[in-house]
Model the fold of this input.
Amino acid sequence: MEALTRIAHVSARVAAELTPAELKANSAAQMAGLAYGLAAIGPGIGIGMIFGKAIEAMARQPESAGMVRTTMFLGVAFTEALALIGFVAFILLKFA
Amino acid sequence: MKNDDPQFVSVLAMSDSGPAPEAAIVRDLIKRGVFVAPVLIGAPAFIWGANGAWSAAYGLAIVLGNFAVAAWMVSYTAKISYALMMGATLFGYIVRLAVIAAAVYLVRNEAWVELVPLCLTIVIAHVGLLFWELRYVSLSLAFPGLKPKQTSQQDQVSPQSINN
Done:
């Protein structure tokens, strides 16, 4: 709690020393980074779930492993697209 | 996980020695990516000029390279063990995302880079190619009868052979 209070004091002091434009840019960078981090969490969980289910399916029916791997690969790639969209949003917010 | 049965084999210790379906999928994706490349590069070239074209081409190369690396990692590690495949899929996701981020971050200030077409191409090419591929995969999974069959030349019937 004490550490959090100290961080808040330091942040307030830094914010007071910055110009409004710098403060806005600083906040935008922080929010963009946070958005990218949040956007990567969901796909990470999704890929884990897809892979877990694929392993389960391959354990139950090893003869269907080819079909399972096909759908797994496409599912993972689709889930990854969400992270790419988050990344693109970050890049466009931060640099464009 | 511990099991006293001597016959017990963990599924994670199993491996797949069969053909790798990921390689076939990625070959299709790359073929289709090359097929639509003129549109994906031409449209940004029309709006942003030569820089837009270079950026879109770079974005398309990133997407196709990402697919190829993902497929190679899965098919290579599946031959060793499913546990390794799991590691390669989960950590590969983080590593490939980091490589894509680095590939965009490092060129962001280059003169030939336009960030908007580069980022749009990454998303559109990735999702579009996957939907295109999914259309064929889902069709052949739901209706196996629709899967194209390999026909040899001997099996093909020509009009001349019918007449004779």
Observations:
- Chain B touches chain A at residues 11-12, 14, 16, 18-22, 25, 67, 70-71, 74, 78, 82, 86, 89-90, 93-94, 96-97, 100-101, 104-105, 108, 115-116, 119-120, 122-123, 126-127, 130, 133-134, 137, 141 (CB under 8 Å).
